[in-house]
Amino acid sequence: MSDKTGSITIGGLARAASVHIETIRYYQRRGLLPEPERPPGGIRRYGDADIDRLTFVKSAQQLGFSLDEISDLLRLEDGTHCQEASALAEHKLRDVREKIGRLEKIERVLGEMVDRCHAQQGNINCPLIESLHEGIREQDSER
């Protein structure tokens, strides 16, 4: 997918996409970004298509997609596989919602522990430390 009229070096590509050179090399090893041929006695050149591809990868990462999932999405990027891409996104959405549920539970438990610490007066045993020793599962079973 490299632009044949590529005019920037790997350093220029890294700057254009706000990534490190080693990130580009890693993506190339993973097959997420093609490695342009090196002309005899020259250096590899990259173009707009490479910047677009890196932007795609970074955008997908920001949405929580793993590099393996991004690889799958890149195979579907011709636009004719919208149903398959949608299925990948639906799976990611379920994962995100499950993570949010776990984070909300963590928030609630930590909030209760902090409240217990603030309510504790004069006792040398810290309720937070005691709760951690007792185990969070025991606290949850009380609810």
From TrEMBL:
Kindly give the CDD domains that the UniProt entry links to this protein.
HTH_MerR1 (cd04783)
In what residue span(s) does the HTH merR-type domain sit? Answer: 7-76
Q: What are the UniProt keywords, alphabetically?
A: Activator, DNA-binding, Mercuric resistance, Mercury, Metal-binding, Repressor, Transcription, Transcription regulation
Q: Which InterPro entries match?
A: DNA-bd_dom_put_sf (IPR009061), MerR (IPR011794), MerR-type_HTH_dom (IPR000551), MerR_fam (IPR047057)
| SMART domains for this protein | HTH_MERR
Q: Read off the Pfam families from this record.
A: MerR_1
Coiled coil spans = none
Say if the entry is tagged with keyword Repressor. Answer: yes
Q: PROSITE patterns annotated for this entry?
A: HTH_MERR_1, HTH_MERR_2
Under Gene3D superfamilies, the record lists: 1.10.1660.10
Q: What does this protein do?
A: Mediates the mercuric-dependent induction of mercury resistance operon. In the absence of mercury MerR represses transcription by binding tightly to the mer operator region; when mercury is present the dimeric complex binds a single ion and becomes a potent transcriptional activator, while remaining bound to the mer site.
- In Swiss-Prot or TrEMBL terms, this protein is called Mercuric resistance operon regulatory protein
Organism whose genome encodes this protein: Marinobacter metalliresistant
Gene designation per UniProt: merR
